[in-house]
Amino acid sequence: MKPEKRERMAKIGSRLERFEARASVRRVLFIGVLLLTGALVYGLNLHTPLMMDDYDYSFSWKTGQPLSGIADVFSSQAEHYRLWGGRSVAHTLAQLFLFWGKPVFNAANAAMYLLLLMEIVALARRERGCWDYALLLPASVFLLFGVPFFATVFLWLDGACNYLWCTVLALTPLLIDRSEREGGAFSRGGALGVFAVPVSFLAGWTNENTACAVWAIVFLMLMRRRMKGERVPFWRWAALAAQAAGTLVMLAAPGNFARASEQEQRSLLSELTYRFAVAGAYSLLYVGALLALMLALSLLARKRGVHLREWAVWLLGGAVLVSLALVASPLISDRSFTGTIVLTLAAALCMLSDLYANARASGAFRLLTTLPLLALFVFAGTRALDDVKTHEATWLAQVACAQQAREAGEERAYLSSVPSHSRFTMDISLAPTPDEWPNSTLSRAFGIQIFSQ
Questions:
Q1: Model pTM?
Q2: What is the C-alpha separation between 112 and 103, in angstroms, rounded?
Q3: Cα angle vertex 421, ends 416, 423, to 5°?
Q4: pLDDT tens for residues 114-167?
Q5: How far apart are CA 354 and CA 367, in angstroms?
Q6: Class of residue 191 by CB neighbours under 10 A (exposed 0-12, middle 13-18, buried 19+)
Q7: Contact status, residue 123 vs residue 315, Cβ threshold 8 Å
Q8: How far apart are CA 339 and CA 91, in angstroms?
Q9: Which DSSP string corresponds to 376-396?
Q10: Is residue 200 within a helix (H) or strand (E), and if so which, with residue range?
Q11: Contact 20, 26 (CB under 8 A)
């Protein structure tokens, strides 16, 4: 490269560096990414219809009738706790949204998705109060491309309440830990300190494997501080106990034992071997690319003499524990790895932020990588909207057939299953007869016997 060209490139890089260093520029870019992501997720939610379990939870588990009010939701969940399972926080949210209506859920769920992204950034960032769009945008792009069951955990009403909403809540004890150590809102005398105990209780009452893993990580971090001779505030132990209490309430639900008894029984050794193998294989499938990225970042940091924070190891340890906790679960599903993906992503971004902080011209690099990432995000988002709209139209055509048959006075309707062809949609599978699920619930919801053709 000629000296004059090298000098010109250096001047451009210097200008970009000064431009990116402005707090106002970073704030605008951060808010811009949030608004773009929020608009996309709202559009995806808008065109994701009610389906599968949504119809079940539209009815009270106590009376068998359509939900009639907020009090009816709580009485329904008391019966659900006894008969089916202990995820009362998730299913209370689901039934509230089904009572309030899908439009309320569409807006609230888009906001919760943004909270998840900000939570990932808050776990990964180096400094308090930073507007790090360079972490937010990669997180947003990765979730779009890297979560093969995106619709199940982020768009489907019942699934989002179980996995998006409850993952955000389950990870809050990690944010509380950082806030307390850094003198933030949850520190002694902080504005939110009084809420630490009840929030921790709810965080424990969310999702079995994620809640247990987060509790274990927080416990180990507090014990490590004690062993180093550091004083840990009493309210931190109280919050940890509340978190454990919430998890125990969830695990002690009579419905959990009823469901577990229905599972196929194997010998203890073969069952444990099977579960370890499944948990390990799916973990590598879902976060293998992130682990490879972390290895590359670690090698780059060593080459450049950059010290990486220990915090990334804690986050990755939490991800491993989320997967290992599934060994104790009677049923391992792909969506149960949501916590594994989120914590591994936060760990990778934590390492990336350390490298950014110690690299020359990192501001210019962040700006130059923003445009292609935004283009990639817009491309993926446009394709996702097309997929979701097509899937919605196909299912609503089936719903219209059932409604037309009922209005014509017919006793039965023949509907077709709607297979998914995208990570942004879900299979809607029907059973042959009205007595089998989900036809039994659809028959009740549509007021006509539903058969599969």
A1: 0.91
A2: 14
A3: 125
A4: 999 999 999 998 876 667 888 889 999 999 888 999 999 999 999 999 999 999
A5: 17
A6: exposed
A7: yes
A8: 18
A9: HHHHHHHHHHHHHHHHHHHHH
A10: helix 196-204
A11: yes
3-state secondary structure of 427: coil
CA pair distance 138, 436, nearest whole angstrom: 43
Q: Tokens 């099977």 label which residue?
A: 274
DSSP 63: T
CB atoms within 10 A of CB 299: 10
Q: Dihedrals φ, ψ of 217, to 5°?
A: -65, -45
Q: What is the per-residue pLDDT for 304?
A: 85
Residues 266-303 have pLDDT tens digits of 666 777 787 788 888 888 999 999 999 999 999 998 88
pLDDT at 361: 58
**C-alpha to C-alpha distance for 167 and 211, rounded to whole angstroms:** 8
Tokens of 183: 């003198």
DSSP 413: E
Question: Given the structure tokens 């699920």, which residue do they identify?
Answer: 437
Query: How many Å apart are CA 134 and CA 30, to the nearest integer?
Result: 8
In sign, the C-alpha dihedral spanning 58, 150, 154, 144 is: negative
Q: What are the distances in angstroms from CA 240 to CA 212, 218, 231, 243, 428?
A: 11, 8, 15, 5, 40
